[in-house]
Fold:
Amino acid sequence: MKIGVYPGSFDPVTNGHMDVIERSSRMFDRVIVSVVRNYSKKPLFTYDERVELLSRATKDMPKVEIDSFEGLLIDYLHKRNANVIIKGLRAISDFEYEFQMALINRKLDPEIETIFLMTNSQYSFLSSSAVKEVAGLGGCIAGLVPESIIRDVYLKLKQK
Ligand code: PNS
Structure:
């Protein structure tokens, strides 16, 4: 069974993430999308809220499971019997950081591969931070995040 893990902060999930989830679910028997719980930046949504938003956005994708993890990603892959780390690449600027992480993870366990899916060009500009900035300034985020979570983003920003 080929199990891939797509890790990230997903604060919140964007249509760029959804594109990677959809495409990778065609390549794996199971894709576990996992929210990192040791993220240092100050997030907008709590871990549980991010898991909930992802679960809602992927509810019609039977191969996709939503989870969260703490600690080293490699340890989490072992725990979940997964063999591949899935990452999305939007631009050259992502490359250096992602390359370094992939090499560190390979050093920690050479049996685990990292694969990179090039973003669909229509999402190359898209990031969770951009979504938060646009929504926070009253702009329209339709088409940037799954429709089912748009309201949550505005509501959360209003509460903060
Ligand atoms: O969405 P992000 O913030 O780019 O995701 C980063 C993530 C979660 C992939 C990365 O921070 C991570 O793998 N964290 C787990 C800690 C770990 O394993 N570190 C060693 C590899 S550098």
DSSP finds six helices and five strands in the chain. The longest helix spans residues 92-108. The radius of gyration is 15 Å.
